[in-house]
Amino acid sequence: MQTPTSRRWLVMAGSLLAAAAAEGQVRYDFTEVTRIAAGAVIGQNVGTPVPGFDLLLMKDGQVVYHETFGTMSPGQVVACDSATKTISGAVIMSLTERSATPFSLNTRVSLYMPAYGGDKSTITIRQCFAHTSGLAESNVEGNASITLQQAAFLTSQLPLQFSPGTAFAYGGSSMQTAGAVAELASGMSWNALFAERLATPLGFAQTQFALTTPTNPRVPGGCVSNAIEFSRFMEMLRAGGVHEGRRVLAAASVASMFTRQTPAGIPIINSPLPGVSDYGVGVWLDQRDANGQLVGVLAAGARGFSSWIDFDDGMVGCFATEFTAAENAYPLCLQFREAAQRAVRQGPVCAADFNRDGGVDGSDVAAFFFAWERGGDGADVNEDGGTDGADIEAFFTVWEAGGC
Does the pLDDT of residue 216 top 80, yes or no? Predict the structure, then answer.
């Protein structure tokens, strides 16, 4: 029977070995990450408990931590909500590189849609994807009975909230309009464009625009995905547009996504990050150092789905869930980011130092068998989902080699 002390030890050991089944793979001590995650399920250090989530961390392009908590299953597909904006931003940037007709961030919507005349005639794609267009929110992106082109037309018939470029108002209808322009400029449907420019080169099997309909895809919030595939997308961006040696986006396109597109000091009408308007192309530029250098970006959705890049540590993280509110998830994700940064800055741990006493000796063997005999996760060294004789072999392979 496990005692409270042994249970705590098993969690510690499990987090040391998490996501490191391959012999020789770099391991970090993510004990603190696991503690925060386990606590979130029961309501510790969060406003309300998070009943289930999948948490994945990457370092320099390699998965170094992947654990599920609560009611979630590994790789479970969930709604991305507004984290979709970052994917759609990447689709838009791909079109600035290659389109059937001229298209750039400075392209005016009115060039393709005459309905956007008068005081709307100067609205650009850049403004549509940075929440500064002034277009009114009309919920056209949630209308399943119309097409994307019809959605854009309906938005054009509403009065502006403010003059284009003069304020920041977070929303989705402007991105829906930009998506309609993208269809006209490319000569392709939005879903076909997404498939060609992102889904196929990134090998997506689960990530797709599931809302609202194929004819009116919800450009600012209609994707579903999982931690594995969304992290793959974010890692491509962290790597400057390259995935597995293949260029998906031009480096300049990625740089534009991570360049502030909103004027500094712009009035904020509404923002899910209170007082924040630091926004790129479909992505929050949420962390800067003391010199104003960008060190972190965030894609985040209304029901908690969040993914981030921390440039200074070469990390990507994904908190995949649809079971909590964004205002509950954001502070939690900040805790994950900070704990993960501390772990990687401390450097890799020695996997064979099972009891973490600073050396590799017989006491580590005893510590391993203490965990193994109790069937704890910490003894699943080969990470095949069970604790059996194969884990003994895997442990001694690492131990005999010094494991460091």
Answer: yes
For 321, the 3-state DSSP assignment is: coil
* pLDDT above 80 (res 53): yes
Segments in 169-260 forming alpha helices (H): 173-186, 190-194, 227-238, 251-257
Cβ neighbourhood burial of 346 (10 Å; 0-12, 13-18, 19+) = exposed
Residues in CB range of 369: below 8 A, 6 or more apart: none
pLDDT tens-place string over residues 265-295: 999 999 999 999 999 999 999 999 999 999 9
- Sorted by sequence, the CB contacts under 8 Å of residue 263 that are 6+ apart come out as 132, 165
Task: In whole angstroms, give the CA distance from residue 90 to residue 199.
Answer: 11
Domains in the chain: ranges and CATH: 1-27+349-404 (no CATH), 78-345 (3.40.710.10)
HSE, side-chain direction, 13 A CA sphere, residue 262? 28
Q: Which two tokens stand for residue 231?
A: 């992290």
**267 vs 135, 167, 169, 179, CA distance in Å?**
15, 5, 9, 26
Compute the radius of gyration of the chain from its Cα atoms: 23
Kindly tell me if the per-residue pLDDT of 324 is higher than 80: yes
Look at residues 306, 298, 316 and name the one whose alpha carbon lies nearest to residue 59.
Answer: 316
Q: What tokens were used for 291?
A: 């010199």
Residue-wise pLDDT tens digits, 350-360: 666 777 666 67
pTM of the model: 0.85
